[in-house]
Write a structure and sequence with these properties.
13 helices, alpha/beta, about 20% strand, two-stranded antiparallel ribbon, Rossmann fold
Length: about 375
């Protein structure tokens, strides 16, 4: 009876991390037949930098190996911290890129503490954050962060000194996609970005276009562009009223070497690449002291965060996403970056010949 009871108990025990493990394994299985990028061990840190009177959340993930590294500047979505998009950022770092993520405090999780968010008036909140004035503010913040990165590299930060500034791509999700497109020249013809980089590629997840935007606003972009969206890419802030707004960006780009990935079942949450399959835990969150240490041994103040899926966020929990949809974003984005930033012929060939059939019913690559 004792043996039987133990067997029964064991049989009923479930691993709370099992959905996450199965999901990760299935994504990996799908990727075995896709484009194969390099695979490196990675290290990461995140911090809050005080630049003038402004607090900016910065996150870094890069290969452990030494040497010069191409850089991807990642710009998160509305209400997200700099550590968002970990699915994509980690994969790009494993493929050999340094990834620097930047989010100004006014556009990150702190916005959920504003009066508008507390009242649930998310459309008005989004209207303000997507405005031309806010866009100029984010561009200014990005330039200040890049200036700070160069200054820290010059003072001996070995990780930041590894950046190859001649091989830079800019990627963004949602609000970050608006900023990324502006860095590359999208928008008003007379608008100056003030950001001193010339991206070799632009990657826009859940791209943004104003409701009255015209095609020529995106035809001005000279860098090759990859846009990724889906018919299920609905804006939880209720600011982007139709998926046609997102489709306009990819349809209007004219730069040689550009692609549109139109997925079939990817939601806004899936495209964000954040907490796609959270691991349940009963452990209490560890206390965070006023100061913490980065891998470099320097002490930095830590900012308190409110999760983007908090009580006052419009972005709710979702079922486990389709692994093939996630694998599709991984494979196509990595091949695009390797093709345009590293000039890898194998990546270019896969995009042109093998990718459409490999995607199957998961989406269309144009």
């Amino acid at each position: 009876m004792l043996i039987g009871a133990i067997g029964l108990t064991t049989g009923c025990t479930t691993n709370p991390a099992e959905p996450h493990i199965k999901f990760t394994e299935q994504v990996g299985k799908d990727l075995t037949t896709a484009y194969q990028p390099a695979h490196n061990q990675i290290s990461n840190w995140d911090d809050t930098w005080q630049i003038g009177r402004q607090s900016v959340n910065v996150a870094w993930v890069a290969p452990v190996a030494s040497g010069r590294l191409p850089l991807i500047i990642y710009l998160p979505g509305l209400g997200e911290p700099a550590t968002a998009g970990e699915q994509w950022r980690n994969a790009w770092a494993q493929a050999g890129y340094a990834v620097l993520s930047v989010q100004g405090q006014a556009y990150g999780p702190a916005l959920y503490l504003t009066g508008q968010a507390q009242a649930g008036v998310f459309r008005e909140l989004a209207a303000d954050r997507y405005s031309s004035a806010s866009l100029r503010d984010r561009l200014s913040t990005l330039q200040k962060v890049l200036t700070e990165v160069r200054a820290r590299a010059a003072k001996g930060d070995a990780q930041l000194a590894s950046i190859d500034w001649n091989q830079v791509a800019v990627a963004g999700f949602d609000l970050g996609a608006q900023t990324a497109a502006a860095v590359a020249g999208a928008g008003q013809a007379d608008m100056t970005t003030g950001v001193d980089i010339q991206p070799k590629a632009l990657l826009l997840l859940s791209p943004y276009a104003e409701i009255e935007a015209r095609p020529e606003a995106f035809a001005r972009v000279a860098s090759p562009v990859l846009t990724i969206t889906s018919q299920d890419d609905e804006d939880p802030f209720n600011w982007v009223s139709s998926n046609q707004q997102r489709e306009l960006v990819g349809a209007s780009v004219t730069a040689a070497g550009s692609y549109r990935l139109r997925l079939t079942r990817s939601t806004y949450k899936t495209l964000s690449g954040s907490d796609l399959v959270p691991i349940p835990t009963e452990e209490k969150a560890p206390k965070v002291s006023d100061e913490d240490h980065t891998p470099g041994g320097k002490s930095h103040a830590k900012a308190k965060r409110v999760g983007s899926d908090g009580a006052h966020s419009p972005v709710g929990a979702e079922p486990v996403p389709d692994p093939k949809q996630v694998a599709s974003i991984h494979a196509v984005s990595q091949a695009f970056l390797d093709s345009r930033v590293k000039n890898n012929p194998a990546a270019s060939d896969w995009l042109k010949t093998a990718a459409p059939s490999w995607l199957g019913n998961a989406g269309r690559l144009q």
